[in-house]
Specification:
- By secondary structure, the chain is of the alpha/beta class.
- Helix content is 31%, strand content 18%.
- The chain is built from eight helices and seven strands.
- Strand 4, helix 6 and strand 5 form a beta-alpha-beta unit.
- The protein is globular, with a radius of gyration of 16 Å.
- The termini are far apart.
């Protein structure tokens, strides 16, 4: 995916009160930071923040953390947070490969919403549902494992179904056309999803879990 570069993005992100600039300090202390014991949901590759912000508004009894490595993307989220008071929302500008250095066993749900599908075979290990990432998630899930994924990429979706199945996840919900599914799965759209919906693209969805 290509992104517009925002001038001084790093400084804008760093000065946002929602952004945790030294996340490594809070490993095993995120509930203390939120000042409650509510469940914590983590979105990897949050992009412009539409999804994580709306989720925080909709579910005040859940703590949400959005992670994004590209600061020019995170600026878009930061700009949407002016004049909002969301004590259940934190943002982190860092590489997802470091999540086990940032979190202990504290995360209840991981959201993968329109993350980069990395379609080339050579890039397979970069996919958020590759076995290497699933092993990382094992280190941060508090108790039971729970992953919710949305994508417009059929190949990545099929790949994810396969890797999660091999990793013993159970699929609680699967949709091959989320916006027209008769099951009426509750859905908050991301920035990309709104665009794809207008274009008439199929949106694939899965809700997978593993109860220890």
């Amino acid at each position: 995916m290509e992104y517009n570069v925002v001038k001084n993005a790093d400084k804008i992100v760093k000065n946002c009160p929602y952004v945790v600039n030294e996340p490594f300090k809070y490993k095993n202390k995120w509930h203390d930071l939120f000042q409650n014991q509510n469940p914590i949901a983590l979105e990897l590759g949050m992009g412009r923040g539409d999804f994580i912000i709306e989720m925080a508004k909709t579910y005040p009894k859940i703590n949400f953390i959005g992670l994004e490595i590209i600061d020019s993307q995170m600026v878009m989220a930061v700009n949407k947070l002016h004049n909002l008071k969301l004590p259940n929302l934190k943002l982190i500008n860092i590489d997802a490969q470091l999540i086990d250095k940032i979190f202990g066993k504290e995360i209840d749900t991981i959201y993968l919403t329109f993350c980069d599908p990395w379609p080339k075979k050579i890039d397979e290990r970069k996919r958020f549902t590759h076995e290497n990432y699933l092993k990382l998630y094992d280190k941060i899930f508090r108790k039971n494992k729970h992953i919710i994924l949305k994508t417009d990429n059929k190949g990545f979706f099929a790949y994810s179904l396969e890797t999660l199945s091999k990793y013993w996840y159970i699929f609680d919900k699967v949709s091959l056309d989320l916006h027209h599914d008769e099951a009426k799965i509750p859905n908050i759209m991301t920035n990309f999803e709104k665009k794809y919906y207008e274009e008439g693209r199929m949106i694939y969805y899965l809700d997978a879990s593993f109860k220890n």
